[in-house]
Each structure stands twice: as structure tokens, then as C-alpha cells.
Amino acid sequence: MEIQKANGLYFEFVDLSDSIVVGWRNVSESFSVDLEVSISKHHPLYIKPPSEHRSCFKKGVLKFASVTSIEGLLPVEDVTPTKDANGEIYFDTLHGVWTTDTGYYIEGEFGEVQIESAAPTLDFDDQ
Prior knowledge:
By secondary structure, the protein is an all-beta fold. It has one domain. Helix content is 0%, strand content 52%. The protein has a five-stranded antiparallel β-sheet with strand order 1-8-9-10-5, with no helix packed on it. The chain is globular and about 40 Å long.
């Protein structure tokens, strides 16, 4: 499998590699990553973040539908989470998402995951 890291997955005004992983699930033919998505000031959901935050974060879900193959995914219970100052659990930042010759490659605390699926979508809870 060839990973084309120059071809990172892109959503307008979103920094996936600065987004915080809250959880993930692989159900039937879908794979979803729950995120605190890092968005830029040009995004329509942007609000000025509190001074203690490095970015504006909005709850969202990165969804891979019509999954025909998924390899390298760790179960949530096998990954040690981190707690923030408020006691909320998270799993570090999303390391990246790239296209491959057969689908997508997504990297984070949940593993180095190879996915064959339809193009992913990014949905926000605020929409």
C-alpha cells in the first residue's frame, strides 16, 4: 500500500491533525471517529476560543461509510486514555488522514488504520 502523505484529507477551514480524538467505533460497514475538531477563524462555526485554548474546537464526527475493509484498528478498551483538567477523557490528537491507492490511511492512538470505503464526511454536532 502506498500512502500519499502529500495528499492529506482536507476539509475547508479544519485542521484534522490538531483535532482531539474523543472516541471511535466500527459498526457494520462504517467507521467513525468522535472528535473535538480544530477549526480556523474562517469556518462558519468559529467562535473566539477562551484564552487557555490554543484553537476553537467543535464536537464533530469523521465518518467512513460503505467500509469494505479495515485493518489495524485497536479496540477502545485496549488504549489508555488521558484526562484533561476538567476530567474529560480523550485519546490525543488525530495524527493524520491520507489517501492511499486503495482508500484511506488514518493514524492516531487507535492505531495505524487502513480503510477501504466511500469518501469520508465530517459532521458537526452544531449543524
